Amino acid sequence: TFDAERLHYDLAYARAQGCPGLAAQDRLLAILLLEAARRRREGAWPAAVALQRVRPFYATGPLGLIASPEDHGRQALAATDAAGVCLAAEIAWEA
Questions:
Q1: Sequence-distant (≥ 6) Cβ neighbours of residue 65 within 8 angstroms
Q2: What does the pLDDT average to over 9-32?
Q3: For the stretch 32-56, what's the b/e string if a residue is b when 16 or more beta carbons lie within 10 angstroms of its beta carbon?
Q4: What does the alpha-carbon distance between residue 29 and residue 36 come to, in Å, rounded to a whole number?
Q5: Distance of alpha carbon 72 from alpha carbon 8, whole angstroms
Q6: Which pTM does this prediction carry?
Q7: Using CA atoms, how far apart are residues 12 and 17, in angstroms rounded to an integer?
Q8: SS3 content of the chain, % helix, strand, coil (to 5)
Q9: What does the domain layout of the chain look like in residue ranges?
Q10: Edge-to-edge strand ranges of the sheet holding 46-53
């Protein structure tokens, strides 16, 4: 994602800035969510994607990728940590 911000790769710096761990880039979380959803649909491409950053994801524990069942070509997704949702997404799939 070409973001050279030290919060993403320098743990000592991130902690000095008050972060509990390295900060994951929202774009990276979005790519992970979309790729996981595409693989479940055998490589289908979304027609539209809406993303909402809820809060930062810090690399202090596991990342969860959650998807709701598809409903009329739409699907809700979320990237989570132990405290809850970090990035929410809604996908409209091509017909």
A1: 32, 33, 36, 77, 78, 79, 80
A2: 94
A3: bbbeebeeeeeeeebeeeebeeeeb
A4: 11
A5: 37
A6: 0.87
A7: 9
A8: 25, 35, 40
A9: 23-93
A10: 46-53, 84-93, 74-81, 64-67
For residue 41, give the H/E element and its range: none
Tell me the per-residue pLDDT of 45-81, one tens digit each, with 9 for 90 and over. 899 999 999 999 999 999 999 999 989 999 999 999 9
For the CA atoms of 4, 60, 19, 53, the dihedral, rounded to the nearest 10 degrees, stands at 70
Residue type, 49: V
Q: How far apart are CA 33 and CA 50, in angstroms?
A: 12
Which pair of tokens denotes residue 5?
A: 């911000």
Place of tokens 């929202």: 26
In angstroms and rounded to an integer, the radius of gyration of the C-alpha atoms of the chain is 15
